[in-house]
Structure prediction request, 345 residues.
Amino acid sequence: MEKTQYTLVGGILLTVFVGFLGWYFLASYVGHRESLQIQEKMLTVHDDLLAIDGRHNGNKVAVGKFGLILLTQDGGRTWQRRPSGTTKTLSALSFADHDYVFIVGSVGTLLATDDAGATWRPQNSGTKDHLLGVYALSRVRVFAVGAFGILLSTSDGGRSWSKQELKWDTLIERIVKEGGYVEPNLNAVYFSSPEVGWAVGEFGVVLNTKDGGQTWTSQRYGSVLPQLYGIQFQDDRSGWAIGQAGSLIQTRDGGQHWSSVELETKRDFYAVSLSGERGVIVGDRVVLVSHDGGSSWKSMGSKREDQWLSGVALKSSEAIAVGGAGTIQLLPLDNVASKRARKAP
Prediction:
């Protein structure tokens, strides 16, 4: 299979760009300038934002195409562009603490900061494959995943990165037997504790580690299952993963069993964020909100039918979502009106 089939960014572009180009994007961007202050001429209709992360009620950073990095220090009301030193697409980021942040992107791009996002320095990933997901357990322990099943880790803050060889003929045995050897895209990685973590990606694959990333086992996969783009756990047992065609799966036993949540939409989901009883899922013209720890979800709708959101971060009373054409939305979490999602029997 060609590499172009195995990038999350490419998948998003193929899914959401058709029919949503040009002045539609410009209208989406201009429509949000009333509530947000962004430096004049800082963004264009081409500046898609792909991810956002930050400490609770602290600094938040958004990243996107052409090496774009934006920093807010006031909850998303105002934003400043920070130099990244690259024009590569930046796909994902993770805060280790208030000061240390790690970013991953195309052709093996890795960036890090130790001053809460004010300045950034490159790191050597040792790969040219696209990196699509990252999770920082601490200032020194970080995991990154990406195209062709790549899994990287560092235990020294990124001074050196090592690649872990995953045995896909064992991890997705049925798929390999049926269609030949493949290395599925891994789109996101998340750790609920220093020892317990998950990675998700193509073929609906869910990988799990219980020894801090030294070894991984498959909890879920299937040749016809939709691709998964994001995952988050509240503890070592309760977690959710989201992806293509309205895919929302959950577990209450650490991933031994995953069940599908029936929703009234089949639109793609790109990011999920949960904290306590509140949760938000964003995607292709859709926003879902939970007020009961992910047990049920309600649609928040979308202000525009041509808008896609690819990243979201929670605050105390609202969420910040980012997406196409430099879109930045402040979402009031109490403004929800829809029917509850029903768990599939």
Observations:
- The longest helix spans residues 8-16.
- The two ends are 36 Å apart (CA to CA).
- The chain is about 10% helix and 40% strand.
- Confidence is low (pLDDT under 50) at residues 1-9, 12-35, 337-345.
